[in-house]
Amino acid sequence: MAHNNLNLKLKVWRQKNANTTGAFVKYDVNDISDEMSFLEMLDVLNEKLIVTGEEPIAFDHDCREGICGMCSLYIDGKPHGPWQANTTCQLHMRAFKDGDTITIEPWRSNAFPIVKDLTVDRGAFDRIIQAGGYVSVNTGNAVDGNSLPINKDNADASFAAAMCIGCGACVAACKNSSAMLFLSAKVSHLALLPQGEPERKSRVLNMVAQMDKEGFGSCTNTGACEAACPKEISIANIARLNKEYLRAGITAE
Amino acid sequence: MSSNNMFTSSVGKKLVMAFTGIFLVLFLVVHAGLNACIWAMDGGVMFNRAGHFMGSNVVPRILEVGLFFFIFLHIIQGYMLTLQNRSKRAVGYAVNYTKGSKWYSRSMAILGTILLMFFVIHWKHFWIPSRITGVEEIKLPNGVEVHNLYAVMQETFQNIWVVVFYVVSCISLAYHLAHGFQSAFKTIGVHNKRYHAMISCIGYGFAIIIPLAFAMMPISFYLHWVK
Amino acid sequence: MLNAKIPAGKLEEKWVDYKGHCKLVNPANKRKMEVIVVGTGLAGASAAASLGELGYKVKAFCFQDSPRRAHSIAAQGGINAAKNYQNDGDSVFRLFYDTIKGGDYRAREGNVHRLAEVSSNIIDQCVAQGVPFAREYGGLLSNRSFGGTQVQRTFYAAGQTGQQLLIGAYQALERQVALGNVTMYARHEMLDVVKIDGKAKGIIARNLITGELEKHFGYAVLLCTGGYGNVFYLSTNAMGSNVTAAWKAHKQGAYFANPCFTQIHPTCIPVSGDHQSKLTLMSESLRNDGRIWVPKAKGDNRKSIDIPEEERDYYLERRYPAFGNLVPRDVASRAAKERCDAGYGVGTSKQAVYLDFAAAIERYGKTEVSKQGLSNVSHEEIIALGKEVVKEKYGNLFDMYAKITGENPYEVPMRIYPAVHYTMGGLWVDYELQTNVPGLYALGEANFSDHGANRLGASALMQGLADGYFVVPYTLGNNLADEIYNAPIPTSHPAFEAAEKAVADRIKTLKNINGKQSVESFHKRLGKIIWDKCGMARNAEGLKQAIAEVQALKKEFWSDVRIPGEINEFNPELDKANRVADFIELGELMCVDALAREESCGGHFREEYQTPDGEALRDDENFMYVAAWETTGEHEWTLHKEELKYEVIKPSQRNYK
After folding, report:
1. Which residue of B1, B103, B104, B179 to mutate against A (max A Cβ within 10 Å)?
2. φ, ψ for residue A30 (rounded to 5)?
3. What is the C-alpha R_g of chain C?
């Protein structure tokens, strides 16, 4: 494949830590191969910053293959950048043109406080899972895996919801900073399986309560979360969560 | 969590918005249906009779109390949610994410505010005269004396600015419904693909037909299509 | 000779017998016992959750922002289990046999048989947790084939099996966090093991947000910190995957076993340039349907689709007719390297071979035609139908390939090349997964125990979960039963203070070097040395050079590395420097081990030792042992051998022809 080199201008949010205010800083990056990933482009910039005695830009990343959910940049007004169904680490520089100015911001939500520069703390997601995002089964009690056939459509739908990587793009995309897509993915994943049935009601009620406590906003069904989700988790899951919630609320003792 | 705070959690508040919203949608159907009587071309007889029924029968009067309650709940809850949701992002973005959603889905509060202004003026035009300050009476062919609301409409809609304001409000209503109708059903838990497709179809249809019908009323009077 | 403490008795009764006779800790005592788990991948999360369920007070540590990020999440293909749901002749023995043979007879029979025994429980456990495995229309679990086997025993969840299993374990872990049985320390990195009276009694961890050092006591320390593939710089591991925890344990006296046994995975996306930061795996499951080929003519520069069928060399099918494209990873990788080295490679770099789905697409298309009862179907329609099937099976992998390369793999064959993927070597552990340091355990990829010299596909997930869910809950209790008489040690103990100071001093030293070169640049150079000289093929000459080069690199690192920022703040460059410093030392040991093992087996291919047709030539007489290295000083190690006794299986040359 023929490839091109790009010269780009970056506008990057820099913030020393949670207690300081941040600001945008402009950088020029030159001779960027369009075969590079977006994070590799930032690696190049960081290498330059380190060698010239400046502090490199802090950003979260780990697997760099779109599955761990650690990378989290808000690029040119979209979580994970311009490509659809994609994570930042899988975004490649082919997506940009020579001379482009790229604005890079962290996830913005009170529930995701900034750690440094573009790195945020997403511990709220773990606490939401702790509120009920599991099946209460101890190790060693399981019956044979095939003793309970599961309708393939439900199994597939459950899997589609379980594909959530917990990156927080839904929160970043939502004008209300709502975590409903994340929450609903977990509620749907478990509600669609017979194993999740016994705790179905308490799960949804407790997880919603925890979400509210963490300081996320509420869902107004704009669909921005679904559009930004790197795993294309359907907003239909939010409707399913609402149904589960209504059912649990009405039938609660 | 107990059932006590079922309607006060973030999802619960949305349920309140959805249920009141659906009630208001039903109200719009009734309202539009009644007002359509102006096109009976009978000089307002049928319209005034319908108006009289709504004003004098006990059932609509009770529903009216509920309607006011739900309208206020919808408005207050809507504003509170908007303010709360805004407060969840203390530092905003330099570049906003606009591609993932429709502008009107993000602008429900603004559209709602236009509608609130509309309601105030609309009540002043019709509801307050009819219920409080009094309206000129007219005798129906069957001898019953009723408020001549038809005449009030005729008079009100001679002012071009009033007509323009009504039409703008109807456009706001259209967009408010375009999002609100289907959103309400999502909020009450309709997730099934088939039903959802059906509801969005009906929702868009509704969002066009009802506001269009309403908008045609001032226009019809202004242009003297109905006399 | 090292004693692995394998229970006596018949192979299939060892584990049952062990479980029946091991010592127990009563529930009241468990509540008083703190246990430290480092790492929250499949092994760590499952161990922390299971031990929490049992009632131990668990402290779990991970360097990522959440336990759900651990790199187990990236495993694509599947997890093996001897369920025999397909009625195709699978059994515990066959899984055991395949694993031993796949590992080129360098794994312990006792451990591997136990692994095969508990494999079924893992599937049951995961299903009970709500892991959405792929299912058939009848609602039952689906299976597929993986390399090195002739049965279908691999359970999967599309191309995201690792993710689903990890989320299952993560959820179990978070449940225990909610119940107060596990305390989670995310963004914490273990920087030393604290030993008191020869036993591991705690760790020094660094809070990566604030940079502060913390002392944590535990009756036992479980290292579940994964493998060391990132020593090569470019690998399919996550950027953060590191050897630091295991290396610190090694420096505290734990033996490091078989470090030269590294797995090079045959199907990865080739390197595109110097900027490359990591490599991406294309799941082995693709070899179920994809056919691997190169042009028959050297230096053929035509486009792949312009090369006619008769001018393509399906070299795996040619060389290994019995297993074809599904030969084990080490064999497939070496075969690709052989073709590329001989000048048949494709793509701009000529360091790639084709993985072609055209035949599979057509085959599936035809199946769909008959399934749907269609008639008069054109070739194009057959292909379109076939693409749909392939999309359902491998869609996410194809999409990933397209994003990275900019090519459409539905239309043109993928270009692939081997890349570092997994490390069979690791901390030496006995049957109980305990290292030679009492109280210090290693689970999952961090230990060396189950895969010999080569791991079969879909076995890593199996081992991680087996260790965490089903092995360590028993073996830990057996050892902690005697510890109940010992009171917890306060972290004000001099040993903790000394360890903390040593860690702080080392960090200060690193920071104060204030040289000119970035950590990353050193890591890259290390990776190149190890890849070139201790990669897919090794020889004595190269290894000797590599040792000298790594030693020189270490010196340069400690005199010229530049770490920006401060110590007491969030400083990813400092974290990386700590890790790369350890990788450099490990890199040397890998070469030392590779040099000492004068035979070829599994992933360790010494060019001097091969059969006439280029297969690995083992030397069972002299090297049928585990090489466990003890650190004895700067650049010095002592070799301890654990003899491998095969009581049931008779080692022979691996034959996949």
Report:
1. B1
2. -120, 155
3. 24
Q: Which of B85, B189, B193 has the CB atom closest to A218's CB atom?
A: B85
CA distance B20 to B74: 6
pTM over 0.90: yes
Q: Give the model confidence (pLDDT) of B161-187 as tens digits.
A: 999 999 999 999 999 999 999 999 999
Domain ranges of chain B: 10-84+102-222
Which residues of chain B neighbour A103 with C-beta distances below 8 Å? 94-95
Contacts of residue C122, Cβ cutoff 8 Å, sequence gap at least 6: C79, C81, C462, C465, C466, C469, C470
Is A1 at the interface with chain C, CB within 8 A?
A: yes
Tell me whether chains B and C touch (3+ CB pairs under 8 A). Answer: no
**What local confidence, expressed as pLDDT, does residue C393 receive?**
83
- Mean pLDDT of the region C333-356: 94
Give the DSSP letter string of C22-42.
Answer: S----HHHHTT-EEEEE--SH
- Closest Cα to residue C351, out of C364, C338, C362? C338
Provide the residue ranges of all domains of chain C, joining segments of one domain with +. Answer: 265-420, 510-643
Full set of structural domains in chain A with CATH = 5-105 (3.10.20.30), 123-251 (1.10.1060.10)
> What ipTM was reported for this prediction?
0.97
CA-based torsion, B139, B140, B144, B148: positive or negative: negative
Please give the CATH topology (third level) of the domain spanning C265-420.
Flavocytochrome C3; Chain A, domain 1 (3.90.700)
> Nearest-CA distance from B208 to chain A in Å?
19
Interface of B with A in 2-21 (CB under 8 A): 2-3, 6, 9-15
CA dist list (Å): C388 to A157, C148, C155, C366: 18, 28, 22, 12
Tell me the fold of C510-643: Methane Monooxygenase Hydroxylase; Chain G, domain 1 (1.20.58)
Q: Which of C593, C603, C591 is nearest to C654 (CA)?
A: C603
At residue A253, the pLDDT reads: 75
